[in-house]
Amino acid sequence: MPLERTVSTALQIVDDEGADALSMRTLAQRLGSGTSTLYWQFDNGAALVAHVVDRMFGAVELKGDELLAMGWQQALRTVAHTMFEALARGRNAARLLVEEIPLGSNAMALR
Description:
The chain contains seven helices and no strands. By secondary structure, the protein is mainly α. It has a single domain, classed as Tetracycline Repressor, domain 2 (Orthogonal Bundle).
């Protein structure tokens, strides 16, 4: 099963039912597979959440060269608004951000 499909489905569960609804069992049922299949992709539920959070950060589009051309205050406002918009698209996913510091490739690129 492609990782992209798995993470997209996990994010859809969070959007539809809330962060508490996301579990390996729920995700496996939604995908029509067994939980053992998911454990080939993720070591545990925390790893799954990390991928979902990183997907959210991947939706944030910032252009470093444009930010550098702004004053620091405007750059911070732009980053804050862009992050807010990305989190607003993932209605219930923002709650996942409080569990761990995001360390995925998209989160690191934003830093």
